[in-house]
Amino acid sequence: MTARPIPRVERPFAVDVTLPGSKSITLRHILMSTLADVPTRLDGVPRCDDVDSMFAALACLGVDVQRTGKQARVEAPTHVSRGPIELDLGMSGVSLRLLLAHAALRPSTTRFTGHRQLYDRPNTDLLDALRLMGCEIDDDGGRLPIVVRGPEVPARETTLSMGVSSQYLSGLLLMAPALPQGLTIHLHGATTSASYIGVTQAEMARRGVEVRRVDASTVTVPPAVYRGGDVMIEGDASAATYHAALATLHGGRVQLLNLGDSTRQGDYDFLALCERIGATVDRSDSQVTLEGPPRLRALGEVDMIDMPDAAPTLMAVAPFLPEPTHITGLATLRVKEVDRIAFGVAELRKAGVRVEEYDAAVTVHPSADLRAVDFETYEDHRMAMGLSVLASKIGGCRVLGSDCVSKTYADYWQDFDEIYKYPAMI
């Protein structure tokens, strides 16, 4: 297990960062490309385990994939394979949910497996929706291993409960235009992580497919074919939160070179939280420059329901704010790679942070005299990167299992180290 020492940041810094391409957007475009009319050339593909898992799965499905650096060429198969296939998705929960829905297009069996962490991820609501479409499914209470057999004639309507994960709806929307009659989805319950649904719809529109809102609880996708061609992937807003947090805490400056106001990614709103804390943010359509404040301000209560992946970053910043921070909207953190509430609270307390834990919220209090510790990551990439932000203020800490960042941001530590190399000009 790798252990990453984290020295204390002693002075403001000035760095430029080219973020990895958005993992969420990349996975969606890879899957759309398998249903496109001509080959697709993707530019800005991130180097990370989740994307590797998706490409490996598609190779098993007969998709022609050619990768060179940050570029990939994806060509749809000429026919749907009718033989049984097994797909190992590693630790990629997003790839699993998107491909579970995609399996409805195959009138033969697709068996899904993965890393032991993936066996703990719930999928019941999505599987129920697929059953209503006519899929035959064998599962272990909504968890892996799961076997899906697509119907010969899929139903044109289904029902989906929305309380657990937005990935279920994204998966259904992405495969829907390839169904003979399209798909109408009746939605039940409050939507979690709604911003990711907005990303799915926006990226489908880029490829020529419309998602129609019938009413407040019904969406429909008519039969269509995705456009191929050239697609540029913007920077990952979740990855941006770590650099924004570091600059905010240390009075540094960071310029994000491939992310801006044109994005639909929900975690981009983390920059607005940094502004509330006191940072200065200069935005354009394609770039952002953030400069940390001389003094941090309180946030009070913050609802993270539309940017849950940024919550571990905020939990790392909160101990240094002048008043308690009450962070709500965290229900989905219980069912991520690990329980990011329980384990996140445990690591904060280990360092001496006073924090209170609730079912879907935490309250983090201002904490002085924090102690250097070895932080556990529980093989969770967002735990590792969030704790690196906390450790950079304490100094003398280590992040154990630090190589787990490769799940979504393989070059994170290389980019993180830049803050020690380039002090800001005073």
End-to-end CA span? 40 Å
Task: Summarize model confidence as the mean pLDDT.
Answer: 96
Strand content: 15-25%
Q: How does the helix and strand content classify structurally? A: alpha/beta
**Rg calculated over all Cα atoms:** 21 Å
What this model shows, in words?
This protein has helices at about 25-35, 50-60, 95-100, 125-130, 165-175, 195-205, 235-250, 270-275, 310-315, 340-350, 380-395, 410-415; strands spanning about 5, 15, 40-45, 65-70, 70-75, 85-90, 110-115, 135-140, 145-150, 155-160, 185-190, 210-215, 220, 230, 255, 280-285, 290, 300-305, 325-330, 355, 360-365, 375, 395-400. It has about 425 residues and is an alpha/beta fold. The strands form six sheets. It has a four-stranded mixed β-sheet with strand order 2-15-17-16, with helices on one face. A four-stranded mixed β-sheet has the order 4-5-3-14, with helices on one face. Strand 18, helix 9 and strand 19 form a beta-alpha-beta unit. Helix 1 (about 25-35) runs parallel beside helix 2 (about 50-60). It is globular and about 65 Å long.
Secondary structure: elements and pairs:
Elements: E1 3-6, E2 14-17, H1 23-33, E3 40-43, H2 49-60, E4 64-68, E5 71-75, E6 85-88, H3 93-102, E7 109-113, H4 124-132, E8 136-140, E9 143-149, E10 157-161, H5 167-175, E11 183-188, H6 194-206, E12 212-215, E13 218-221, E14 229-232, H7 237-250, E15 253-256, H8 270-277, E16 280-283, E17 288-291, E18 301-303, H9 311-317, E19 325-328, H10 340-350, E20 355-357, E21 362-364, E22 374-375, H11 381-394, E23 397-400, H12 412-416
